[in-house]
Every structure is written in structure tokens, then in C-alpha cells.
Amino acid sequence: MKQRLLFAFFALSLFFTGCGSDNGLDGNWIKGSSFEGRPRGGAVSFVIGDNVYVGTGYDGKDALKTFYKYSLQEGWSKISDFPGTARREAVAFTANGKGYVGTGVDEDDNRLADFYEYTPASDSWVKVPNDFTGGARQNAVAFSINNIGYVGTGYGWQEGEDRNNLKDFYKFENGNWTKIAFDGEKSRNATTFVINDKAYVVSGDNSLKYVWEYDPATVSGDSNGWTSKKYLDDDNNREDVQRSEAVSFVINNKGYIVTGKIGGYSREVWEYEPTTDKWVERTSLEDEVRSREDAVAFTLSDRGFFTTGSASGIYLDDTWEFNPTMKETDDDN
Fold it and tell me: Distance between terminal CA atoms of the chain?
């Protein structure tokens, strides 16, 4: 049985376990401080300053309202519960130093369109007066650029039609929702990350096989800001990037996509370099890292993490960090 080396980070005195996949690729997985709340899947996360906030979701029995804060210096602590209907598969983003959580589906399978605003200084939530203009949905994506939030795609209803995958996109600015264009396909369970004020929407169900880049600085009369990047079924096995219910984070201006499903649960890790539009495979999840769906991911101090999620009906609370420059640290002796 492989022995695990221990690493200490910061004055927090947390200990992390390093592991590699023994596949000769760069990168190393490091076990972090487990999520403090009830194990869950389908939660949301948003980052404000040096803290990440993780909450809502589903624990196999109930939809949840509980929320927790995590920092590298202070670890996990509970914050005020989410005040709206308990939900899973919602979205979250940050704007002007506040967190926003909305949409999703409750435990009775009712889809939701409401949003709530979280203020960290007072540890308080208030309902956003304007519900999401795009209507009730789950499994959407959200991101923010220059303090403007964006929400789009997902699974729900369009007016006059049956329940379906969606492709519409909206921005949230000064308390109001405005529809914007999106050139990609209808999709749900995609993932997204932001690098240098450009957002990247990747993967998902219903053949969203292009990486779509959104640059709001280029929006003009003849440009809607979206650019399709290389097709994921091209050479270099990039079809393995395509998956459902993955999560992503950013380290040193590169995006990383992890977990999710390609038929079964995916263990492969891919790194995206936006300046060259190239994907490079990195160290896969080690055997002791359970692959999963419905996790959350985040970046703190240019370090990438994922936590929570579910796998084969088991709900999880473990946390893992990826270091792309560290070599494997397994000791087979």
C-alpha cells in the first residue's frame, strides 16, 4: 500500500496528503481540509477576497440551505443559512464584493428563478428584487467579469415549449437583468472559468464541444463578444475534455477541468492555455481521490481546489488541491 507524504501549508497547521497517478504527467493532487458541513452534491460556490463560500445542494435526502466559508488561513466556518427555498444545481457569482445565488431546483423538482445577495461584512442575505429574467432552470453556468454577473444555458422551460436544454444568456448589472447573445449550442451541466477578463464556457451535455470565449470588451455593433475556439473532437485526444457535470478552476492564467462524467466518472485532468487555444493532459485523479459529479471548484491565492459532490449515490465532503508544477509524491517503497 502506498505511503503518503505529508505537507504543511501556512500557519493553519492543516496537513495535506500528496498523491500522483503514476502516469508520467505533470501535476500532483494534495488532500486538503474537508468541507465542514453535511456531505452534499449540487452545491454552489463563490469567492470574495480571500474566502470561498460553499452552500446549498442535496445530501441524498434533503435539499439544503446551509452555507460555509473557507480561507487558507482560518479554515472552514459556518455562516448564515441561505434564506430562500432549499435547492440544488443552482448557480452563483460575485459582483462588487457580494455573492449572488439563484436558480436551481428544490426537493420537489420545482425549478426556481429567484436570486439572493450575500454581504460578507454583515453575514446577511437579502432577496434580489428582480428574479432571473431567463426563467426557472437548473444546471446553468454563471461567471462574473468586471463586477457584472452572467448566467446562461441550463435545463428548464422556454415560453410556449416543453422542458428542454437552453442556450439563452443574461447579464446582471446594477440590479437588472439584460439578455445578451450566445452563439453556442443548447446545453446543461457545462463548466466555466475566467482568465484575464475573458470567460470560457466548456463541455456539458448536448454536444457543447467547442470552447466558447466571451470578451465583453469586444462587444460592439458588429460583435457580440463570443468566439468559438477549436473543436474538442480534433486531434490530441481533446474529445476526452468533453464531459458532463465537470468543475473547473484557474491557476497561473490557465484553466483546469476535472471530475464529471464521460459515460462513467472521468479521472482525467486537462489544462487549457487560452493564448494558444491548446489543451494539455495533466496528472489524473489518484486512486484515493474519488471521481464524482456535482462538485464545486474554486481558486484561492492562485491555487485550485474542488470539494463536495456525489458518486454512485454517495455524497462527499473531501477537498482536493491540484498543484500543476509539483511532481508525483507517492512512495512505493
Answer: 9
Chain segment 24-76, per-residue pLDDT in tens: 568 899 999 999 999 999 999 999 999 999 999 999 999 999 999 999 999 99
Length of the chain: 333
**Phi first, then psi: what are they for 293, rounded to 5°?**
-125, 170
What region, left, alpha or beta, does residue 263 occupy, with left being phi > 0 and alpha being psi -120 to 50 degrees?
left
DSSP class per residue in 9-20 = ETTTTEEEEEE-
Give the pLDDT of residue 269: 94
- Determine the distance from the C-alpha atom of residue 63 to the mean position of all C-alpha atoms in its chain, rounded to a whole number: 19
Residue burial 119-141, b: 16+ Cβ < 10 Å; e: rest: eeeeeebeebeebbebbbbbbbb
Mean pLDDT, to the nearest integer, of 237-242? 70
In this prediction the pTM is: 0.89
Domains and CATH numbers, the chain: 6-323 (2.120.10.80)
Dist CA 261 CA 255 (whole Å): 18
pLDDT at res. 275: 94
| Residue 177 DSSP class | E
- The answer to whether the beta carbons of residues 154 and 105 sit under 8 Å apart is no
